[in-house]
């Protein structure tokens, strides 16, 4: 039986393709890990799926067997050609788009009901791609994402830990990490130099903070973590200026604390108090 590793090599030869490190082209060739992805998705027949970066289509082949509609967004023109000309290309319910996920208009691409997302995200785009997926969270119910271990750790981090920061708070704002699975470099070809983690993130029906308050929350969180070793009173002095005392009092947050100790709810109180004191979200 041909292994996925052999299949990948022969596809590259046929295409004249060299995997790009900048595009994070480490292809998953371990069948058990692909099975784990399918299991983490926990699919119903009616679930639509968005796959980010289908690559050579090894995961995609399983997805189209499990779901009636799969939308796949791939940035690499050679891989798009490979998928379009291969057996997947003519498969009913497979919708391939040649786009960058950082600029894809999900509202135009996807149906009204929420779909599940599968993404094996390269390090270079992982954080911005996740933020886009979170912000379009009304379109998605579950994300099953393969990430560099350190990025996964930041997403799932608890307050009071070194990994806790903007990504952790944004993940909590939009969803909840419900499963983590470690994946070793041997599962990919070419082998990456880093370990990976698969996360299942269940998205909330609505973000935990009202949409209108999110720009201000973003300003407060960014300013807080830009100087994470400082006390919040100092880290947020520039943003809050003369209103600082009033804002910390109203939010019932001690300005001697540091950003990395605050729960999402406490940041949300600071952002609300900042708004009530006339602060805007574009600072
Ligand atoms: N899903 C395949 C797998 O698991 O074997 C390929 C994963 S590979 C780590 C990442 C894939 O994402 C590649 O096919 C790459 O070309 C694609 N990609 C990288 N940046 C992208 C972007 N900004 N938008 C869409 N696809 C992207």
Structural overview:
The chain is of the alpha/beta class. It folds into two domains: 4-203, Rossmann fold (3-Layer(aba) Sandwich), CATH 3.40.50; 211-276, rRNA adenine dimethylase, C-terminal domain (Helicase, Ruva Protein, domain 3, Orthogonal Bundle), CATH 1.10.8.100. The protein is 41% helix and 18% strand. It is built from 13 helices and nine strands. The chain has helices spanning 4-15, 31-41, 58-66, 77-85, 106-109, 123-135, 149-156, 166-174, 214-226, 232-235, 237-240, 244-251, 264-276; strands spanning 27-28, 49-52, 70-74, 94-98, 115-120, 140-148, 175-183, 188-189, 196-203. It has a seven-stranded mixed beta sheet, sandwiched between helices. The chain has a two-stranded antiparallel ribbon with strand order 1-8. α6 (123-135) links the parallel β5 (115-120) and β6. α6 runs parallel beside α8 and α12 (244-251) packs across α13. It is elongated and about 70 Å long. The site of S-adenosylmethionine has 23 residues, from β1, α3 and β3.
